[in-house]
Amino acid sequence: MPEHTEQQTMTYICPGCGSYLRFDGKAQGWACDYCGNTYNAQELEQRGAETKTDSYNVRPRADAPADETELQFHFTENLSNSTADTAHMRAYSCPSCGAEILTDDVTAATFCVFCGNPTVLPKQLAGEYRPAAILPFETDKEDAKKAFLQLCKGKKLLPKNYTDEQRLEKITGVYVPFWLFDCKADFDYHATGENVTTWRDTNYIYTKTDLYHIHRAGRLAFENIPLDASEKMPDDMMDALEPFYLERKKPFHMGYLSGFLAEKYTYLPKELYERMTKRITPGVEYKAAEGRPYQRVYGVKCRTDFLSERQTYMLLPVWLLVSRYKDKDYLFAMNGQTGKIVGELPCSTGQSVKWFLIIFCITFLISGLLVYLIGGGLV
Amino acid sequence: MRTERKFAAMLLAFCIMLLAFVPAFAAELETDSAGRVYDLAGLFTTEEKAALQNRAEEIQENWQMDMVFLTTESTHGIEAKRYAADFYEQNGFGIGADYSGIIMIVDMGERDAQIVTCGRAITVFTDYYIDRIWNDMRRQLSEGEYFSAMETLCDSVEHYNAEYIKYQENPAYVSEYQIKQEKRRTTLLFGAAGLFSLITAGIGVAFMRRGSRNIKPFTDGRAYLKDNGVNITVDKNTFASTHTSRTPIPKNNNNNRSGGSWGGGSSTFRSSGGRSFGGGGGRF
Ligand SMILES: [Zn+2]
Ligand SMILES: [Zn+2]
Predict the structure, then answer these.
(1) Radius of gyration from C-alpha coordinates of chain A
(2) Is this complex scored with an ipTM above 0.90?
(3) For residue B222, what is the DSSP state?
(4) Residue B239 is nearest to which of A212, A280, A377, comparing CB atoms?
């Protein structure tokens, strides 16, 4: 019979700010870590402090419910922009993919860096362009070319002539728009912890399963979580380009754009909010579950309230190369600050087949020889 | 007196005649008691029967193994091999303490033919060899070449008996069965090597293809935690339940299967007399 234990945990809520109160054993009272108040039992009663009861069922693993994550977010738009002079800005648009490309009046945009289309058309700059800060490039085009060759090196399945000079020339420095989120996460985490011990006598193997109810709650504070605000940039690739060291950021100035391209943001922070919470939720759950002395943890029920109070519009430097191969775009990107490389390279079918046969022949030769030698009495 | 002499002469003549006949009669009696061909279904000609009888006698002499041929129109509802085993046992066939011998039954009613072995013949003619012999005989039986089939059987019996002696005398002897087993093992091993190579090549190329994608997320969010950004207010671990179960430790019983390098094992059955018989066969 599977045991099934309903756990009732009662926790006081701070009358001042509504957070969970922490019982302080030393002071024999309750402390609020957010507003700093402390209460004793009498005070809590006088102020009619609410209690919060969580019910969580501790069940054996076989019938434990699936992990459950509940996310809520509260969002205060507090955009941090600048009022830089954009008189020398030029805008172009790509007739093929619709990208809007920005640069200054001395830099020529001759092709579309996002889709490889060889013509871009000048256009009127629409709206305003006011990034709060910019992280200048610390690498040059030669570094990016070397990095690209480095990535291609040893890739046996690469189509022929993929690394020709013509392609290398198309590597372009782009300032990609990002929103940097400051965010707090209040989590309330319940889970089942399982410890199993086994021992044996002459006839039986014994298995003892102890189950614990884990309840943790707290607040995590994050800052400067970068999320690219460009529709053109694959999110997984931009996430992989991190980290950027933001200490070296500068207030935005048109001068930084010289020789580089830039893009306007396509997404507002509120459109990125869900992506942001999804990105940090694993970290929140990790922190919530951290350091528990259990062999297994399951039946996780984690409720997290995210609260973002500030978003900074910032340009981050990325070297970019988009290559089209058999109707698919392959993107190479290098972190313009650190030189970190991410990217996807095409695989030629012919090369794949060739290598399949090579590996097959070699393995079969070796294993066949082994069979022959070990099998010995081959008649 | 003359009549007396005449009578004596006649008596003598009768005695001589008797003496002359007795061996012939005795011989015929002996043939009957030593007869090994029971062609109740009438599948063989007289010459063929005589030839089979000769072969049976040769086998008896050379290999100390009885050889009986039985054809019938009906086994009266009894399984052919059991019918043959009972026939063999009840008529006292078999050589030596273990009644070594083979009885070949062809049941025309059910078109079922069985090679039934007894005593040492069970050891020599393992399932593997019975299968070999049966495969050779079966075609001949179904084409109505009953005598040829019996000759095939006799040839095989002599051949494998000779091989068995070699096997017993020479420790380095490699039996036909062993060769076959080894060939099968080798084929299997090469097949496994081929499969292994296919899988390796597949995994290798998949790995190479994956290697051309270099996109790993940098952080699950923890990298952006502020210094002192972790504030835990509730941290409770409540013991909820315990449960102990036990499972019996499985006992190992290693059944050592017999069957050496001669030819694997022989499956056996019991006659109604309780004696152990082996062999095999089938429809034709
Ligand atoms: Zn408070
Ligand atoms: Zn384009």
Answers:
(1) 29
(2) no
(3) G
(4) A212
